[in-house]
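[job 4471] stage=fold_predict status=RUNNING
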Amino acid sequence: MIVAVVLWRIKKGSRDQFIKDWKEKFVVNDRAGLIGEFLSEPIDTSDPRLKTFDLQNVGEASDEKTVLVNVGMWRSVEGFNDQVAKYIKSTDAEKREFEFEVRQRVLLNPTAWRIGKSLLPGEDSIATS
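[job 4471] inference complete, writing structure tokens
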């Protein structure tokens, strides 16, 4: 299993359209190797214990961006490569029109894990197929 993490820095005002595009355009067609994928945004909390890593400060400091994080769990690097990495340009240097800064990504290899009694959601969020 691998975990793929993508940090998206989106221009202010483009959040809703980006989420719509993520659900409708940036789809994984063959999900045989996909365990789950979650587009998430930081929870605004006043409890300093729950926010020791401020994603808004990664990259250029600006109030003109919205930060979202995509976390995908894949059965293997090969599964990720077959369905996602083939669309990643070799330089990945140009921003898309909605991006404040070029996305950053990392693949992680879990070295230990715990399995809870709660299950992953049983279906996609609305408009994701």
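[job 4471] summary: The helical segments are 15-24, 77-83.
[job 4471] exit 0
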